[in-house]
């Protein structure tokens, strides 16, 4: 309003004006009204790029769930709800494309391997000793290994979508790793070796392996993005992402998760060897030097990390590591259950019902947890802590064959993706995909699904399926 404008007056409202409803503020929903242009534009944007919702699924994993029981039969998190929204969104888009005559949206190989997993778990649920109990297991496995991976695969259209989800993995790892390091330095983590120094991030003492999984995913995603930036000639971005990937070694170390250590070392080795052998050797030298400085020089958990590594094979003697001996006893238990039910297993979610009848006498009743804001509790051992043995005991040879076909197809396809990138003169994103998949397959030797980060397994499988069953565009600066 300028000085030449006439003064504004507010006239008295007439009876008709007073009877009219006041206009709704911008962005406010009016019952019965059609969505405003802003909401319609946002919905169209989400439909065009559903990978944003997949990235949100990753970030929502970091939302604290308190000290809830992660071993409960039904444990739904914010990330689970978002993943179901992603499935619904991609299903709607796929149905619309089919109705418009777009044909099949999934490659035939993807349809074959994911259908095999669905058939295997359905057969095990039908032949279960308690089909009603196995129904929740059937739903969970279908969500984790079929529906959400397919939705992630359908949400990826180009390398921008892939970078978005990898960036979300890095962001989640930075958040959880930062919280974990703070817990280690201030002694506010989970209980470990007489103290409360075990880094668990926002997941609490009842889910001590969750933070290490998130940090491992982020480390590998940052490494892949750094390799891509290096191939494209973006030196500053490559250096920054490489240093960020290396910095995640510290929160991973103070998580004291032996399975994550082994899986991360194997995954980084696979990714670098398939990308550049000389770079792999330089990376090994740099990692050893950083370990000497951080652990040997600064003393950041050196004695504890060394003792934790040496405990992997400590199952005998006067002071055996009970967590290790219990895990090996659970493996034996799973094998005995399978021998009694070799074809379709005992059914999803049925391992706890058959555990005591097949377990060695020395198996503990549960593992002790405390710290990170929670009191002492004993978590029951409801699975064999080995995904392959869990599938074998609950789904038999039928289920294990289906899962083996899925994992083998993804692994071979991701390796081909890396070779395609190398031939086209680029590298990085394919290395990230095969690194994430290799981490998951190795980690399954020491862990299985369950807990807050289970939905991230689905995201990793969906990313690997994108590299295995599609032909990503060549890397470009």
TrEMBL record:
Pfam family, one: Wzy_C
Main location: membrane
Domain O-antigen ligase-related: 244-403
UniProt entry keywords in alphabetical sequence: Ligase, Membrane, Transmembrane, Transmembrane helix
Chain positions covered by the region annotation Disordered: 1-36
TM helices/strands, residue ranges: 72-94, 106-126, 138-157, 164-185, 205-225, 237-254, 260-277, 284-305, 396-415, 427-447, 453-471
GO molecular function: ligase activity
Protein name: O-antigen ligase family protein
Membrane topology: Multi-pass membrane protein
Places the protein is found: Membrane
Keyword Glycoprotein carried by entry: no
InterPro entries (alphabetical): O-antigen_ligase-rel_domated (IPR007016), WaaL-like (IPR051533)
């Amino acid at each position: 309003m300028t000085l030449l404008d006439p003064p504004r007056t507010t006239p008295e409202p007439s009876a008709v004006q007073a009877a009219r409803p006041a206009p709704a503020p911008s962005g406010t929903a009016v019952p019965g009204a059609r969505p405003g242009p802003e909401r319609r534009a946002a919905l169209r944007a989400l439909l065009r790029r559903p990978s944003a919702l997949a990235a949100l699924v990753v970030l929502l994993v970091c939302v604290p769930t308190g000290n809830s029981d992660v071993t409960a039969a039904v444990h739904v998190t914010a990330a689970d709800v978002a993943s179901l929204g992603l499935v619904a969104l991609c299903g709607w888009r796929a149905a619309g494309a089919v109705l418009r005559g777009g044909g099949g949206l999934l490659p035939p190989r993807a349809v074959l391997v994911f259908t095999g997993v669905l058939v295997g778990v359905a057969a095990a649920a039908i032949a279960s000793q308690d089909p009603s109990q196995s129904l929740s297991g059937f739903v969970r496995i279908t969500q984790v290994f079929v529906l959400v991976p397919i939705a992630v695969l359908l949400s990826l259209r180009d390398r921008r979508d892939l970078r978005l989800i990898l960036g979300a993995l890095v962001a989640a790892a930075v958040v959880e790793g930062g919280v974990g390091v703070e817990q280690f330095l201030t002694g506010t983590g989970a209980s470990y070796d007489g103290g409360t120094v075990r880094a668990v991030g926002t997941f609490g003492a009842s889910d001590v392996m969750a933070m290490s999984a998130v940090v491992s995913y982020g480390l590998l995603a940052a490494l892949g993005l750094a390799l891509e930036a290096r191939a494209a000639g973006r030196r500053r971005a490559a250096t920054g992402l490489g240093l960020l990937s290396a910095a995640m070694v510290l929160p991973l170390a103070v998580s004291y998760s032996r399975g994550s250590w082994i899986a991360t070392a194997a995954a980084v080795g696979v990714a670098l060897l398939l990308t550049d052998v000389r770079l792999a050797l330089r990376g090994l030298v740099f990692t050893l030097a950083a370990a000497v400085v951080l652990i040997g020089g600064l003393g950041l958990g050196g004695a504890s990390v060394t003792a934790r590594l040496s405990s992997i094979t400590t199952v005998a003697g006067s002071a055996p590591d009970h967590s290790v001996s219990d895990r090996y006893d659970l493996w034996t238990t799973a094998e005995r259950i399978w021998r009694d039910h070799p074809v379709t297993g005992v059914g999803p979610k049925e391992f706890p019902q058959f555990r005591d009848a097949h377990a060695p006498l020395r198996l503990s009743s549960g593992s002790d947890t405390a710290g990170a804001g929670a009191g002492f509790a004993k978590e029951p051992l409801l699975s064999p802590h080995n995904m392959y043995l869990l599938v074998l005991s609950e789904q038999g040879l039928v289920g294990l064959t289906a899962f083996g076909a899925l994992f083998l197809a993804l692994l071979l396809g991701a390796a081909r993706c890396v070779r395609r990138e190398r031939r086209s003169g680029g590298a990085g994103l394919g290395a990230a995909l095969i690194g994430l998949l290799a981490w998951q397959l190795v980690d399954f030797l020491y862990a299985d699904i369950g807990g807050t980060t289970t939905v991230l397994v689905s995201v990793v499988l969906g990313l690997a399926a994108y590299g295995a069953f599609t032909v990503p565009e060549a890397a470009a600066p």
